[in-house]
Design a protein that fits this description.
The structure holds two protein chains of two kinds. Chain A is mostly helical. Chain A contains 14 helices and two strands. Chain A has a two-stranded antiparallel sheet with strand order 1-2. Helices cover 55% and strands 12% of the residues of chain B. Classes of the chains: A mainly alpha, B alpha/beta.
């Protein structure tokens, strides 16, 4: 392997790793605030990617019907609750919250789909659809059991993955999609070629990391999420609603998943079932930091991306097996660091 | 009818002659899946562990026999042994890596394993790639070829019944109580002498072996294997079968597998007919069903179906008199039982226990008292190895036990109760108490499965019953532990500690929540124990109870020992009065 190939693989690996890092950050965010190990996160990525691809070829992405369905279910649950609590005054607000935004986005999507709108508009609409799915999914699937065990929440996340993958096949078919890079350019630095798309992806990671840093460090909702992560009961006592924190976490997760989707679909062919692998690779990155540390999750994820890039070069058929074998040393490391029974959770 | 198995056996016997051929095939698939799901129920329902890699273990069983019989003409029976050995090694590796970690790492580790398996076997040369292996020969036994769907129907269902019987035997045994008490690293089970990591590892390997066996049967039933049958989706489907059937009962395996496989068959013909589109859309419906059940019917279908047969959800024991378990020699009354020198425990900058020294002589009753937050329970946790000590020495009968594991501390003869009672709610009172005698038995999983543990089991249960009689709760033996009021739960905890035959008994607030009459009974019990040579150290806030019972009192405040002596001396001590009532120096 000469240096050029090495650099090419490294660049590709870092670009993919940056996507995993974005997702790993949201995994940690969701896990610490809600205790949900959200393995279905990858499906937000594929939904956004395939929606973007559909819009590019002028089709109305059918996923809008899922958005509409979930919005109606969530609104129905809220209205039912309001009626049984005799809290009629809250109904208009709830209906507005759960129905207006989703149906506005649905209408917008139907309107722009055949117009061949600019790529950025299509990307924004794709991200918007997926972002709205986040809090709806939390409301319907997780909020009723938000105090359940980590195991229970994990099984629900797996069930959601199943449902999403089924819907993915229903809406987008079994074919894979890939789109042209948003910025189709490259720079030459000496003998090395740097793709603009790679810079865009790494830049997005840097931007979001900075934004999240500001969000968590300096804004009230960010601090509320951090407080919930540290101690749910304590956060509730000081007036932070855990379910609101959950919805906010899912909104952020879905948004970042959506952005990752429109970025990744120009470098990788995305199928309806690509989500699980993408999601699990970010889990691998996230657990490198024990599911609590953001910097470790980012570094771990970039490592996963690089491992994947080189694995694909040396033994392409075994890439996935190589990447997932990396769980073994990571788990070993975590296991050796852990001290079971210290501060037993029962006592 | 007490045992639905007696009802099921005749059905199995006649079913292949009554069912349409297509449903005989389907029943074979149900049986093969049930074998795998039984393992998941042992793992998840009883032990609180989850695996999403079972299909890959099925795959090992199937590929081992396919590869060895086709390429080397090996006997399927030999191939089965090879498959089981490889499976055990893989499960051991995954278990060792993940079981020491908190709850969610075993499922993640198994997910990764499930994915890796698919990609390895789809690409490894010699295993037929995505097409897999075909033409796998039939199993032959005693000169007969076992082949055809009717033969396999009996073979598969015999394996299911054997697996059910052995798991049911395991659950109702010494090791079964250990499994049902957590399976993960729980301080209570560890303090009862259960090696929770070892128990978790054992059931994980056992469930993997069942999956492997199912794969071996699958390969010889279909004469064909390919990697798609063992991918992650299939592992998730097995898990869903367990959730739908219900993790709380072994019948959940068959009920879940049958429901899932039959309705999947219907959906796969119905949905394309309705929508005109082809694809695995049934997964959407199953995903919703599982979510719905987890929200509203976490017990699964089994309890309501078993209810039709009048089967009790928990074990019911009528305990016969048995030979008593061997008891320890009690120490001479003057021997130093427990000696604590300069014990210290820091939590960050806070010294919860700050340089404490005291000792307890054999046959004494000593109380450790002090205001809330004085560090009394922390002191108990240091003595019993639940928490590691920062510095200092704890000796028990002349042997250093500081920083020993809580299991070893129990084996040496120190038993304890917990301030917040830690009974297993879904075990009966008798089973909870028998858990205390865990270290006095030795039979493991295999003997339990084969019912070779009955003599020891009778002794363990009799011991539990004797201790329950002592605390006056024998009539509640078969009650589920969480249906007792708090005061009685404390007494059950004492019985559980006594079942380990301790030299030294540590009681953490035994009188809290007890009514007056119950306190009188408890004080009488403590005196009886002292007369028998059992030494007692107790933390208690009820001063009337303490002062009338104990020989000596040690007083702690903010982690420091402020007084020690007879009840009378301590009650008159100005430092103690100040700690409890506040100073008068304004």
């Amino acid at each position: 392997m000469d240096f050029q190939i090495f650099f090419f693989l490294l660049e590709d690996g870092i670009a993919n790793g940056a996507i995993y890092a974005l997702l790993a950050v949201t995994m940690v965010l969701v896990f610490t605030t809600t205790r949900i190990l959200f393995v279905a996160q990858g499906e937000f990525v594929t939904f956004s990617a395939l929606t973007f691809a559909s819009l590019q070829i002028g089709l109305v992405p059918q996923i809008i019907w899922l958005l509409g369905l979930l919005a109606v279910i969530a609104a129905a649950i809220e209205i039912y609750r309001a009626v049984s609590d005799k809290d009629f005054k809250s109904i208009p607000g709830t209906v507005g919250l759960y129905l207006v935004a989703p149906f506005a986005v649905i209408a917008l999507t139907i309107w722009i789909a055949p117009l061949g709108a600019p790529m950025l508009v299509q990307a924004a609409v794709s991200v918007a659809i997926v972002t709205l799915l986040g809090p709806l999914v939390y409301r319907i699937a997780f909020q009723p059991v938000s105090s359940g065990s980590v195991r229970l929440l994990f099984v629900i996340a797996i069930a959601l993955h199943f449902v999403f993958q089924g819907f993915g096949l229903l809406f987008f078919g079994a074919e894979g999609f890939r789109v042209d890079p948003m910025i189709d350019a490259s720079f030459e630095v000496g003998s090395l070629i740097i793709k603009a798309q790679a810079i865009l992806i790494v830049g997005t990671l840097a931007l979001f990391t900075a934004l999240l840093y500001v969000f968590f460090g300096y804004t009230i909702p960010g601090k509320a999420l951090r407080a919930t992560a540290v101690n749910r009961v304590g956060a509730r006592i000081v007036g932070i609603k855990p379910d609101l924190a959950g919805k906010l976490a899912f909104l952020l997760t879905a948004f970042i998943g959506g952005v990752s989707g429109v970025l990744i679909v120009s470098s990788t062919t995305i199928y309806y079932d690509s989500g699980l692998l993408i999601g699990l690779k970010s889990v691998l990155g996230a657990i490198s930091g024990g599911m609590v540390s953001y910097p470790a999750a980012i570094i771990g994820s970039i490592g996963v991306g690089i491992l994947e890039g080189f694995g694909a070069f040396w033994a392409s058929a075994f890439t996935e097996a190589i990447v997932f074998s990396a769980f073994i040393p990571v788990l070993l490391w975590l296991s050796l660091r852990s001290t079971p029974n210290e501060e037993g959770h029962e006592l | 009818m007490r045992n639905p198995l007696l009802f099921a056996l005749p059905i199995i016997a006649v079913a292949p002659w009554l069912l349409p051929p297509f449903y005989v095939t389907l029943a074979n698939y149900v049986a093969l899946a049930s074998i795998v799901v039984l393992g998941l129920i042992l793992l998840g329902g009883a032990g609180g562990l989850m695996s999403f890699g079972q299909a890959a273990f099925v795959g090992i069983g199937a590929y081992a026999t396919g590869y060895l019989t086709l390429n080397y003409g090996a006997s399927p029976w030999l191939a089965l042994l090879v498959g089981l050995a490889v499976t055990a090694a893989m499960a051991l590796l995954l278990g060792v890596l993940t079981l020491r970690l908190t709850g969610h790492y075993l499922p993640i580790g198994t997910l990764a394993w499930g994915i890796s398996f698919y990609y390895v076997f789809a690409n490894l040369p010699g295993f037929g790639g995505h097409d897999g292996l075909s033409g796998i020969p039939a199993i032959s036994a005693f000169g007969y070829d076992l082949d055809g769907k009717t033969t396999f129907f009996y073979l598969n269902w015999v394996v299911v019944v054997l697996a059910m019987v052995s798991i049911s035997n395991i659950l109702d045994s010494r090791i079964g109580r250990a499994i049902r008490s957590g399976g993960r690293a729980t301080p209570m089970a560890e303090a009862m002498g259960v090696n929770t990591t070892g128990v978790g590892l054992t059931i994980f390997i056992f469930s993997a072996l069942l999956a492997c066996l199912s794969g071996w049967l699958y390969a010889h039933f279909l004469h064909f294997v390919n990697p798609t049958a063992f991918n992650l989706t299939i592992s998730i489907e097995y898990f869903f079968m367990a959730v739908i059937g219900g993790l709380s009962s072994i019948w959940g395996a068959i009920i879940g597998a049958a429901f899932y496989i039959v309705s999947k068959q219907w959906l796969q013909t119905l949905i394309p007919a309705l929508t005109g589109r082809v694809g695995h859309f049934d997964v959407i419906i199953f995903g919703f069903v599982v979510m719905f059940m987890l929200h509203y019917a976490r017990q699964g279908l089994a309890p309501s179906i078993l209810g039709l047969f009048g089967k009790r959800a928990h074990f019911h024991h009528s305990v016969a008199e048995a030979e008593r378990l061997p008891q320890r020699e009690r120490a001479e009354p003057v021997t130093e039982m427990l000696k604590i020198e300069n014990a210290r425990k820091n939590f960050g900058g806070l010294a919860a226990v700050d340089d404490i020294s005291f000792n307890v002589k054999a046959g004494e009753i000593v109380a450790l008292i002090g205001p809330n937050g004085a560090g009394k329970t922390t002191m108990f946790n240091l003595i019993t190895g639940v928490l590691p000590m920062t510095s200092g020495v704890v000796s028990f009968r002349g042997k250093r036990i500081d920083n020993m594991h809580s299991r070893e501390v129990l084996r040496l003869g120190i038993a304890r109760t917990f301030q917040h009672t830690l009974l297993r709610p879904h075990l009966t009172v008798l089973e909870n108490v028998a858990l205390g005698a865990h270290t006095r038995g030795s039979t493991g999983l295999i003997k339990a499965a084969l019912r070779l543990d009955r003599r020891e089991e009778a002794q363990l249960l009799y011991e539990a019953k004797v201790q329950l009689e002592r605390v006056g709760l024998a009539h509640h033996s078969n009650t589920l532990a969480d249906s007792l009021p708090l005061g009685q739960q404390r007494l059950v905890e004492i019985a559980r500690a006594l079942a380990s035959d301790p030299h030294l008994l540590l009681l953490d607030e035994p009188a809290a929540g007890l009514r007056y009459e119950e306190k009188v009974v408890l004080a009488k019990l403590c005196r009886e124990l002292r007369a028998e040579g059992v030494t007692l150290l107790l933390v208690e806030h009820d001063m009337e109870f303490v002062m009338n019972l104990v020989d000596r009192v040690v007083v702690m405040d903010f982690g420091v020992k402020i007084a020690e002596g007879t009840p009378e001396a301590v009650q008159a001590d100005p430092a103690v009065i100040e700690a409890y009532l506040g100073g008068v120096n304004e």
